[in-house]
Write a structure and sequence with these properties.
This protein has a single domain, classed as Rossmann fold (3-Layer(aba) Sandwich). Helices cover 22% and strands 31% of the residues. The chain contains three helices and nine strands. It has helices at 12-29, 45-54, 105-115, and strands at 5-10, 36-41, 60-68, 79-83, 93-101, 121-129, 142-146, 152-153, 169-172. The radius of gyration is 16 Å and the shape is globular. The two termini are 19 Å apart. The structure holds inosinic acid and magnesium ion. Residues 43, 68, 75, 99-106, 151-152, 157 line the site of inosinic acid (IMP).
């Protein structure tokens, strides 16, 4: 499985170091406020777990799942909600935790529907930002790493549901994906 990664883009130690930095920043920014983390399934699970372990303050967690139609290395832009939150976010300080922003369509859709529920605030924290691919403008408040326009796997990110358990972020070999 590791052999299907052409290169290690972000090693475990670097993922950890950056996650700690983000956690310190989030702790400072949310001092004196409540905090609800919303994890976007499934890709953000590893990042959510590592980030919440570094947040030394009270917080709540809930989950949402979205799917973009089709299984390929390019997202279709058509997004569908497959699992909604269990809790109400009205009047709460909400931070969306995402694995990667590519075109921006998934997060645009999510922020639109979450804003309607009148949270006290709504911010976005993404581990990875493939900025060159952005098609719609989404304001992102916390970014782990800006990465080049390559299809990445591991640390929660999949290709056809596989590779999520790799402990690093790697670039998928060309011959393993239909790019
Ligand atoms: P967007 O809606 O185009 O921003 O796409 C966001 C979603 O596409 C992410 O949440 C991922 O599930 C998926 N995605 C985009 N790029 C990659 C990648 O390089 N590897 C794995 N999944 C990706
Ligand atoms: Mg995702």
């Amino acid at each position: 499985m590791q052999e299907d990664a052409a290169e290690v883009l972000i090693a475990p130690a670097d993922l950890h170091r950056r996650t700690v930095e983000l956690a310190r920043q989030i702790e400072a920014d949310y001092a004196g406020r409540d905090l609800v983390l919303i994890c976007v399934l499934k890709g953000a699970i590893m990042f959510l777990v590592d980030l919440m372990k570094e947040l030394h303050r009270p917080l709540e967690v809930d989950f949402m799942a979205v799917a973009s139609y089709g299984a390929s290395t390019a997202s279709s832009g058509v997004v569908r909600l497959t699992k909604d939150l269990d809790m109400s976010i009205q009047g709460r300080h909400v931070l969306i935790v995402e694995d990667i922003i590519d075109s921006g369509r998934t997060l645009q859709y999510l922020t639109e529907i979450l804003k309607l529920r009148q949270p006290a605030s709504l911010r976005i924290c993404t581990l990875l930002d493939k900025r060159a691919r952005r098609e719609v403008d989404v304001p992102v408040d916390y970014v782990g790493f800006v990465i080049p326009n390559k299809f990445v796997i591991g640390y929660g990110l999949d290709y056809n549901e596989v590779y999520r358990n790799l402990p690093f972020v790697g670039v998928l070999k060309q011959e393993c994906g239909n790019m």
